[in-house]
Write a structure and sequence with these properties.
2 strands; two-stranded antiparallel ribbon; mainly alpha; 7 helices; 65% helix; 4% strand
């Protein structure tokens, strides 16, 4: 006697097959509608990541997009000697007034941080603005003084090394015992470093024009 499938089993298989086809079709349509979508397995970080986003008033997707944007932006900065986003030796005078209203707790906290970092509050706010717009460090008065003093000492060392290199090159003695090339390399590194520091200090104090 030939075996036959029961009507119930046939119906179940048919429904399951239709559901799988429908689900597969939905996934295909979804992937076509959102071709830029990426699925990531956060493993043990999921709960902490979701909690972080909730604390900061954002969604996991928005926060992830911000991370990707910052990483790509940082890679595209390049290694230019001049600060990114400013026009060298084109200082601007602050001529536009902008009023910002803060809460009592905000201004108290801001004043404390500004004082701790060596800024008056208005200069600290300008520093935050320029750091965000140009990606360059902003220095307080004590930091500027320390950098200026450091540059003076390094420039003096560089001049001494230059004199040593000249004396060794002019000497008739056997120069094989001396690493004149190493002295010259150190001198060049000091010159490059002090030049970069001087540019950053000028960009801070003169408020170079933002491109």
């Amino acid at each position: 006697m030939q075996d036959r499938l029961s009507p119930v089993f046939v119906l179940h298989v048919s429904c399951s097959y239709d559901w799988l086809i429908g689900f597969w079709s939905f996934e295909m349509l979804e992937s076509r509608a959102r071709p830029n979508r990426i699925n990531i397995d956060l493993q043990g970080y999921k709960a902490s990541w979701v909690a972080y986003c909730e604390r900061n008033g954002t969604t996991p997707s928005d926060a992830f997009r911000q991370i990707v944007a910052k990483l790509i932006e940082g890679e595209q900065k390049g290694d230019s000697q001049l600060p990114r986003g400013v026009a060298a030796d084109e200082p601007e005078k602050p001529s536009r007034r902008c009023e910002v209203r803060l809460t009592a707790s905000e201004i108290t906290a801001a004043q404390a941080v500004a004082a701790r970092e060596g800024f008056a509050l208005p200069r600290w706010i300008v520093g935050l603005l320029r750091a965000r717009l140009t990606g360059t460090p902003q220095f307080g008065q004590s930091e500027l003084e320390a950098l200026a003093k450091s540059n003076l000492h390094l420039l003096a060392i560089g001049r001494n090394l230059n004199q040593v290199a000249k004396a060794l090159n002019a000497s008739t003695a056997d120069r094989s015992a001396y690493r004149i090339d190493l002295v010259e390399q150190i001198r060049d590194v000091i010159a490059e470093h002090t030049s970069k520091v001087a540019l950053l200090m000028s960009a801070n104090t003169e408020r170079w024009k933002i491109r």
